[in-house]
Design goal:
The complex is a heterodimer of chains A (166) and B (70).
Chain A lengths: L6 E5 L5 H10 L4 E3 L3 E4 L2 E6 L2 E7 L3 H83 L3 E7 L2 E10 L1
Antiparallel strand pairs in A: 1-5, 2-3, 3-4, 4-5, 6-7
Chain B lengths: L1 E9 L5 E8 L3 H10 L3 E8 L13 E9 L1
Antiparallel strand pairs in B: 1-2, 2-4, 3-4
The chains are: A alpha+beta (166), B mainly beta (70).
Chain lengths: 166, 70
């Protein structure tokens, strides 16, 4: 009398024990987590480093179906995690681009403010300079007996000096 | 009665243009120089025809002078 047993090793599509446990939680399958395995409904899920697998004797449909049920859920979770990761990266890139644009706009604003300030300063200095020249001319003209009429037209100061000789 | 007039235009860049009216002979130039040379460098003098007419002719001599800031 002889017997022949064919065992199959079925590997889960994840290398994270936590993902397997989460899948079992979602599927509401009670399990016991041990040091190098997870026991669920009489099936031993082996954990060997990054390899997570089950050894199933051929023909054990209940365990094969259980494996497929858990692995399908894990695959779905992994897909969702990938999508979340892609979305997160995209959001982070958008935020980084926005922050970069904001920084650039602030820099431009600062530069513009500085230029405006310099321009205003220059205009004030120019105005003060012209005012001093004008005052000097008026003072000398009055010393020489001229009457002075002053007007401004399109930014040009006009002085009309008049002296009457009898 | 005689009226002597000097018109001065001072722009935003500090450049000046001056013109005299009613002066006779070269006195107009000396008058402008007295008024302006301490504050401006005179770069261009444009003499009108009347500048060259004598005082005896009783012609009103005009003179135009331009300057820029020192």
């Amino acid at each position: 009398m002889s017997s022949r047993i064919v065992a199959r090793t079925l590997k889960f599509c994840t290398c994270s024990v936590n993902t397997v446990c989460s899948a079992l939680d979602i599927l509401q399958l009670p399990y016991v987590r041990q040091e190098k395995s997870i026991l669920v409904q009489g099936m031993n899920i082996n954990v060997n480093g990054e390899k997570i697998y089950v050894d199933i004797i051929s023909g054990d449909l209940r365990k094969e179906n259980l494996f497929l049920q858990i692995n399908s859920k894990i695959a779905e979770m992994e897909r969702q995690l990938r999508i979340q990761s892609i979305n997160k990266n995209r959001q982070e890139q958008e935020i980084a681009a926005q922050e970069s644009e904001t920084y650039r706009a602030r820099q431009l604003k600062r530069e513009q403010d500085r230029l405006d300030y310099e321009q205003q300063k220059l205009q004030l200095e120019q105005k003060s300079f012209i005012e001093a020249k004008k005052s000097s001319i008026i003072a000398k003209a009055k010393e020489k007996g001229y009457s002075v009429q002053e007007s401004v037209e399109d930014g040009v100061v006009k002085l009309k000096l008049v002296r009457r000789i009898y | 009665m005689k009226e002597l007039t000097i018109e001065i235009m001072l722009n935003e860049n500090g450049e000046l243009e001056a013109e005299t009216f009613g002066f006779k002979g070269k006195v107009c130039e000396s008058e402008l120089r007295e008024l302006l040379q301490d504050e401006f460098v005179i770069t261009d003098v444009e003499k009108k025809d009347d500048y060259y007419k004598s005082e005896e002719e009783q012609v009103i001599v005009d003179k135009k002078i331009r300057g820029k800031r020192i």
